[in-house]
Amino acid sequence: METLLNWHKKNHEKQLFGRYIHLESIRELLDKLPSEFEVKQRGLSVEKRPIHTVTIGTGKIKILLWSQMHGNESTTTKAVFDLFNAFQTTDQLPLFDTILSSCTLCFIPILNPDGAHGYTRINANNVDLNRDAQNKSQPESRLLWDIYKDFAPDFCFNLHGQRTIYGFEDTGKPSILSFLAPSADEERSITLSRKRSMQVITHMYNTLSPYLSKNIGLYDDGFNHNCTGDTFQADGTPTILFEAGHYPNDYDREITRQFMFIAIITAIENTFNNTVFDETLYFNIPEHQKCYCDILFKNSLDGDIGILYVEKLTSDKIKFIPEFASKEATSSMFGHRVIDVSGLKIKKLLQENVIGKPDIRHLIIDEQLTITL
User: Fold this and answer.
1) Which residues lie below 8 Å from residue 97, measured CB to CB, with a gap of 6+?
2) Residue 35 dihedral angles phi and psi, to the nearest 5°
3) Which domains, ranges and CATH numbers included, belong to the chain?
4) pTM (predicted TM-score)
5) Per-residue pLDDT tens for 26-63?
6) Which intervals hold domain Peptidase M14 (predicted)?
7) Distance between CA atoms of 301 and 346, rounded to whole angstroms?
8) Alpha helices for 223-345 (secondary structure H)
9) By three-state DSSP, how is residue 21 classified?
């Protein structure tokens, strides 16, 4: 872990920063990849933006990884290009060479380039691609399925990002990384492929836990045959959902990026290192809940008041727009930032923001008192 963290600090892809990552962000980086990377345009999005694969490695274990299936979930895309640096840097660690000799890795850096361009979860036809695995109504969904069938992977890594709302009710800790071995059927059976997914996740959890104490969790494993991970798992391919969450004060997700890079490296390593875990250990990993807001005002005359940021693309920058959370949502919430306003009544919130800085600017209390934050 320490070696990988130190390597990442020096060698991560510095051209990619922040939350707004799209096709133009990565085009030059794709063009500069050396010949050992096989870069192919495999298809087009709804709005005719190209979708690429990048294949590297000569090993027998084949892993398919795709990022930005949801266009506004970009942290894992940054981690993917950090991996590309890992596989070509002069400061290469022996593990990186071992990965390339043991595995063949096929990446789709941005599956939903239209959503990435508009910073939306959905594609240009307003379809959630992660709910289109059965209908395959969208060109991006059909392309992913075609690549899956053509590449015939031994493992699938489904790379996503999660909102700041996730944490753990029993500890009050935020969820920085979360994983899931998707179910293959309604009964949530421990199929052979799901068992192998659980073992890889257990290895990641054991590796990362000393550095992210009590900040790693599981997603709910309810089966949804429309979801891509559930579909691939049901098809017999071990599939893992990766979710990049919120590290304290890291709204650009640059610290989370480091840990996601290590999570992916660790997962890849476990596919060939013969370390097998009892899958029941997977169920010792806590499941996270929706129990966080971005700012929590404690003890106002109206009770606790929560603020959630809404991310909005403006002039190629992401603004964080503060909005009041519902009282029902706030009743059991923790806050990434907590402010005591004992005995005061919050009247309204002025929507004044600074691009790239997720701060409420002015809070109006008792109509006369203004708190600038």
Assistant:
1) none
2) -65, -25
3) 2-290 (3.40.630.10), 293-372 (no CATH)
4) 0.93
5) 999 999 999 999 999 999 999 999 999 999 999 999 99
6) 13-271
7) 8
8) 228-234, 254-270, 327-330
9) coil
